[in-house]
Each structure stands twice: as C-alpha cells, then as structure tokens.
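hey so i finally got around to running the thing on that chain from the lab meeting. sorry it took forever, my laptop kept dying and i had to restart like 3 times. anyway pasting the input first so we r on the same page abt which one it is
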Amino acid sequence: MDIGVEERRVAIEVIATLVKIKHVMADLILKPAGIPPEIYRSLLYRRDPSTGWTLSKRQIAPLIVEAVEDRPDCAGAIRAIVEIAANWSSFHLASDEYAARATVQKAREVLDTIEVMAAREAKQRELGRKEEIARMEREKAELFRKQSSLLLMMFDELVSAGDAQRRGYHLQELLNLTYNLYEIPVYKSFTRNQGGEQIDGAFKLDGWHYLVECRWREKLADIRQLERPN
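ok and heres what got predicted. didnt touch it at all, straight out
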C-alpha cells in the first residue's frame, strides 16, 4: 500500500462526503486541519464554465487536496484531515450517512496502517542502531587486538636489542603506549625532591597513584627497592 496515495484518496472522500454544507465542512474539517482559507475559499462557490453550475464537493475535493500538496506550509494537512475523519461522529451532517461511515472506517484503517508502518520503521531503526553498535564494538575489539599484538612485537624487539640505554628509553615509551591502550591516565616523567629525583612516570588506577621507574634487570626487584609514597 502506498500510504501517501491512500491518504490522498481518503482526504478527498472526507471533503466530499462527511458534511453536506460546504462552509460547514470548511469550518469542521479544513480549518482544523490547518488549511489556509485562501486555498479553499474561492473553490467553495466556483462554477463550472460549461454549465454555470456551482461545483460539487466531489469536484472541488481533489482541487483542494492538490492545492494543499503544492503548499510547503501545509505539510501534514492531508494527514490531519484523515485523523479528523477517523474520530468523526457527526454523521447527521452528511447527505449520505452510509457513505460517510464508510469514509470514516477507511480513515481509521489508513491510520492503523500508518501506526503499524511507523512501529515497524522504529523497530528497524532500533535494530540498525544495535547492529551499528555491535559493528563498532567488533571494530574496537579488533583494533585492540592488533594494537596489543604490535606492543608485544615491540617488546620482543627491545628484548633482543643490544643497547641497554636504548632499551630503557624505549621501554618507557612502550609503557606509555600500553597505558593509552588500556585508557589508564598517565603522568609523564617528572622530577621531585627539588629536582634531585627523576621519576620516569606515574599512573592512576582504581583511585591509587603509582610511580613508575623503567629499568631492565636481570633479576626481579625485591620489596626493599619498591617505595610506597605517603
């Protein structure tokens, strides 16, 4: 179903069948739908040039709908006409109550279809959003894996490097890259105790601050070589 075409058809039937008297129809349907009077005022009493007779609501209905569709400031007016019809109960105003009731039923069916389509589109958008989030998470995980592998390769290269001083400097850089990968806040190298002590770096984790010294050793450091700041 082309919902735009169906809305247009129903709007034409609403204008043509729900209210017998034209100016009453305008007051109860066109005005509440937000259609400016200059669109329909002249059409209500336009005459057929070949017969001289005033045009019927059936004849002016498509003219009104067409004029509304050409006006950017009337966006939503056709839908508003359908909504008015879906809630219509003043069938005594119609010249043909059976036709009026049929139009109201059609308006309700169209609105039900619109609601179903809107719900389906919202579900599709939500599904698309979840798929996009999942895709981004997969890409993030893959990037993390690649960066982790690269850091491990860098470490392996440092292990085999012959220049101990060079290894020390690059180890500090490698640690900073590792902190960045795990999104750990890092404070780069600084001095303390009036410049008498060089601190290679520091980081904060779970509310604790840690000082870092980058040094290659043949043996593990013992507890006496670790400092716990006050």
